[in-house]
Amino acid sequence: MLTILHGVHNQASRDIWVSQTITELSKVSGLDHLSLLDAGAGQQPYRKIIENLGITYSSHDFNSYSPTNQEAGLHVEWPHLEHDYVCDILDIPTSAVFDIVLCTEVLEHVPDPVATIKHLSKLVRSGGHLIVTAPLLSLIHQAPFHFSSGLTPFWYQHWISNNSLEIEKIVQHGDYGDLLSQEIRRFLKLPGFLQIPISNLLRPFIPRDLASSGGFSIFVLAKKI
Questions:
Q1: What are the residue ranges of helices labelled H in 53-112?
Q2: Pairing with 96, which of 120, 145, 182, 202 sits 20 to 30 Å away (CA)?
Q3: What number does CATH give the domain 2-175+218-224?
Q4: Which residue in 83, 70, 209, 195 sits closest to 143, CA to CA?
């Protein structure tokens, strides 16, 4: 069943969910040692917490993104870090499998997200887990490597179940009020601490069907069957 989180920040709340999910898996795994692959790791934002949990961390990225003002879209500073696997995400070798495969904010940046889910499923050991987050709605960013504005819960329900994976949790991160609050802040250049107060102010005036139709991201935790 889909859970919808209201009154949340975009990145900060996502970081909390990912960290808590990995921590929970480390506690209930029943294994003495866990391995994790961070696919499309970029700046490796979760590496520290993963290693602090005693999990062996491996990272992947294609290391080809280079911000330029010549392209449309939002841009950020992007130093390239060292990764265990530097290649297209579909070329990560399947000779090694992992207890956890993590893929955060990546699927919108690959030309074929269906093929990506299929490949990532092959990298998860039997009984292991896949953690995925990707936008539900987003502006163009990290151009030109941005191929979709978001994926719905129904996309995951279809493709996860078709790749030897079973969804354990699926979460819509934010609602239309949260999304609208973010864009108002972005347009008016307001500070981040106003995110939740603005969304709480807007929410009573938003029709219920509209409120649930928008948000920041979809979070998925799936188990390899």
A1: none
A2: 145
A3: 3.40.50.150
A4: 70
